[in-house]
Each structure stands twice: as C-alpha cells, then as structure tokens.
Amino acid sequence: MTKVTILGAGGAMGRRITRALIGEAGYDLRFVEPSESGQQLIAEEFGTKHTPVEEAIKGTDVVVLAVPDRIVKDIAEDLIPSLDSGTSVLSLDPAAAHAGRIPVREDINMFVVHPTHPPLYDLLREEDAQARRDFWGGGLAHQAIVFAKAWGDESKYTMVEELAKVMFAPVSRSHRVTVDQMVLLEPAMSESVTNACLGLMRETRERIKEMGVPADAVDDFFMGHLQIGISLIFDELEWKLSEGAIKAAEESRAILFKDDWHRILDPEEVARSTRSITGG
Prior knowledge:
The chain is an alpha/beta fold. It is built from eleven helices and seven strands. It has a seven-stranded mixed sheet, with helices on one face. Strand 1 (about 1-5), helix 1 and strand 2 form a beta-alpha-beta unit. It is globular and about 65 Å long. It starts with a strand and ends with a helix.
C-alpha cells in the first residue's frame, strides 16, 4: 500500500487527482486542505476529511504538491524539513524546482510531472464523443505526461511515475525528461510562446469584428483556417500552403515578431520566467 498525501486537496488540481486515485487499489490517501471552503468541497464530493499536515506526512511515501506555483516556496520551506527520511515529493509543475524554491534535502526525493493535455489529433481519434471534448484532460481522453527526477533516489522513480500515470489517467505514454528540459516545454514553449501567439490571434479576430465584418463570418473563417493552418504547417496533410499564403506569412514576420524572438528559450530568460511565476 503506497501512502500518498495530497497537499491542496480541495483545489481544482487536488480534486482532479483525488478523483483519479480514490477508487484505485494500492493507495492509502491523506488529504490536506487548510481552507474551510476546500474542506467542504472534498467532504461533499468524496466524503473525505482534512488531516493536519503534521499528521498526514508521518510515514507517507509520496507528498503531492497540488498547490499554486506562487505559494510553493512558503509551503516547501515548512514541509521539507518536516518529512521523514526517504519521502518522495511530487510537484505538478517544474517552475518551483527549477527556480530553486524547494529546499534540497539529500535524503528526500524530488520528482516533477506535468500532463501534456490531450493532443489535438489524438483527441479526434477518441471513440467516445465526450472524450473528444475533454480538451483539458479531465479523465476521459488519453494524454501523455512528462516526468522528471529533480534529485534523489533513482529506485523510487518507477513507483512515483506509476502514481503520476494514475493521477492523470488515461495516460497514453510517459516521457522521461530533465527539469531543465521540462521548463522549455512549460512555461517557455506552451505559455510564453504558444499562448502569446494564440492571444494575438484572438485579438486579431476581435479587431476584425470591430471593423465591421459580421461576427459569424469571422468566427467560421478564423476557426476553419486555424484548423487547416495547423494541419498544413505541422504536416498532418500531404498538401502545402499556397505561394500567396507563404508570401503573406513571410512578409508579416517583420511586423509581428522581433528577429531575436527565440531568446525566450535561452536559459537566462527561462530562469527569469520560472522565478517570476513562483513569486518574483
């Protein structure tokens, strides 16, 4: 029986994890949720009760940090010195470990996991209609995970990885990466680049509506061209963009992007980002 303590059990991610684990054999779960509203949520949804953190971590095998990035530092400073030797800690985001917000104890094992969320074309292959709408990865659609050991005992890797697979089930595959590699995926690629570009695209759509083009026409045209653009640019179709489309894209880069945009992936810039995310 693997003893698992979930810190932040009443939050959105804490409840997502609990929902996945609570019916699984082989796990002895403890729930830590200091807020009254969170305690009420887990009591109503799961019939479970909050356990004080000092009691919950005694003899636990894995502590899951299901807490916001901005408060991980304060929680970890109190938590890490109090853990039994040999305990494993599982963070749900690489930012805190990368930014040095979690104290290093040589006898404590630190792991990091993050779901990929259901990939676009994998989602289309789901047989169940509800699973095809599970964009976030709420337990219906398959998704992958990326998993890293930040430091600690390699022999604990498989046990914690298996826990992570159950937490984010159904999982199609698990990719082993380093923490430095994971922060290139998030925040650098998925948040700093992808979300920024998508935000610009949405703003473009809304500006065109404000210029008088009928909203329904804009939405249909935008979403259709978004789909075909992704399919062509990412080689999902044996076709290619027209010469005119390629020329328009090339000429727009000077207006939309700085020539050195890719410095967002430089180690110094990624470190600045993870420090900012986790408290400045």
